[in-house]
Amino acid sequence: MRRTTVTRGEILLDRMEEEITLLRKKHNDLEKLSHTDDHIHFLQGWQSLSGPSGYEDLNNISVAPYYSFDATKRAIASLKIQVEETSKTEMSKVSGAVKEVYITQENEGKTRRESILRDEWKIKEAPKIKEEPKTREDFMKWGGVKQLDGLVAAMQRDRLHVSASTSKGKRGGKKIGTSAEKSRNHPEIRTNFVHRRADLWSRDFARLAEEEEEERRCPKCWKMSLWVILPVSLPVLTITGIWVVYAMALYNQHVCPVDNWLYNQSCEEELFLQSGADLCCTLDNVPLISKCGALPPESCFFSLICSTGSFMVMMIVLLRYAHVIEKHQNCVLNTASLSTGWICAAGLIVLGNFQVDNAKVLHYVGAGIAFPTSMLFVCLQSALTYRLAKTQGEYSVAHLRLCLTLLSFVALVLSGVFFCQESFVLQHASAIFEWVFCVIIILFYGTFAFEFAGMSEATMAVLARGGALGPAGREHKVEALGGPGPHQSENML
Question: Where is the TRIM8/14/16/25/29/45/65 coiled-coil region domain (predicted)?
Answer without folding.
Answer: 3-88
